[in-house]
Every structure is written in structure tokens, then in C-alpha cells.
Amino acid sequence: MTAEIDWNAEMARVRTARAVRTRVGPGRNPAVVVVDFQVAFTRHAEIGPGTARSLASTAQLLDAARAVGIPVIHLVMVLDDLGDRMLAQRVRSSLTEGCLRGDPRTAIDPAVGAQPGDHVVEKTVASGFFRTRLEGLLAELEVDEIVLAGTSTSGCVRATAVDAAYRSLRVSLVEECCDDFRPLSEQASLWDVQDRFGDVVTLTETLDRFAAGAPGHRAGATA
């Protein structure tokens, strides 16, 4: 008989493993990509205090990026028809119901609003790469690394990270700048990203890196 999993112990194990997992490392030309920090996803019944903290941290990240000329790209879900959504979201109730074009909930949250010089890329599913102009924009900007912020960590952020990794882009997910009202899914996704697709980094090291004008964050130890 298989022993029952101690989920508290498993969570502790995963956090330890994430901290020591080998890092992919940074690129030479990063861009900050903010995923779906729209009113539809930052102001709903299930958000907690972590949402405000993530928005405030992302505002710091964006200020630091803009100050040194690192491109800022906002991904936003905008639908011309609710039928444009993937099947699972059409079948189940979903926050994406607030993403019809013209709905004020599609607006980027004012805490991290787009500024002159930023880029805005519309999408219709979780990944920022699916049938969008993101890949072409990154190529035009000669970007080799995306620094990720946004919501939700286990949904649109993770999907974008995975698709970026498939394109051999370096991925740096800034933990304090991502939000998810599903805490268990978030922790699993952070481990997934660190283990398979890119790096989970801190806001402090990213701000220090940007301020120094250096491309890299320190590589971690090999697990």
C-alpha cells in the first residue's frame, strides 16, 4: 500500500529544492513582460492581500527597467467574442468573462499602468505567445530573456514562461511580482518553472541587477 503523502513535508521539500536548483542564468538583452495585470484579474472577490503587494512590487520593477532602457511589455487578454476563449474557459465560469473588448475591466491596473514607450500585446488565451505579435516583437527588440511579472502564476504566467522556454528564451520569473489566489497551484508552478523552464528570482536581486547595468543574476548551486 502506498504511503499517504505528507503535503506539508512535500511543500517544504519543494521550496528547498527550488532554492538550490541550478539556474539557467540571465540573457544580455532582457525585457520585462507583465502578464494580465488587468482590472478583471486584480479586483475580484477571491483576491487576497498578496495582490496589492505584487502590484506594488511590479511597479518598482517597471520603474527600474524604464530607468535603464529595458523594454516593458504588457500582455492583456482582450476578446472580441467570448467564443474566442479556449474550450475549458467556455465550459466553466471564468474571470475571462470580463475581458470583452470595451469592458472597463480589460484595462491594465493603474498601479502598473502602461507608460509612453511601453508595448502592449493583446492575447486571447493563457500564453502570451499563442497567435500574438509577442514573438516578433521580442525578435525586433533583440530580446533573449523575459523577466516575468503578473497573474496568475499558475495560469497565464506559467503558460507564457513555458512557451518562452520552448523558444530557447531565458526566463526569469520575479516571485514577488507574481500573484495567484490559488496558493497551492502557485507553489507547484514556481517549482515547475525553476525545475524545468527557467529561473525564479527575487525582486531585490533583479532591482540590483538593473541598477548595476549588469545582465546577470548570480547562478545557483547544482541540485
Automatic annotation (TrEMBL):
PANTHER family: ISOCHORISMATASE HYDROLASE, PEROXYUREIDOACRYLATE/UREIDOACRYLATE AMIDOHYDROLASE-RELATED. This is N-carbamoylsarcosine amidase. The keyword Hydrolase applies. InterPro entries: Isochorismatase-like_dom (IPR000868), Isochorismatase-like_hydrls (IPR050272), Isochorismatase-like_sf (IPR036380). Keywords: Hydrolase. Pfam families: Isochorismatase. GO terms for molecular function: hydrolase activity.
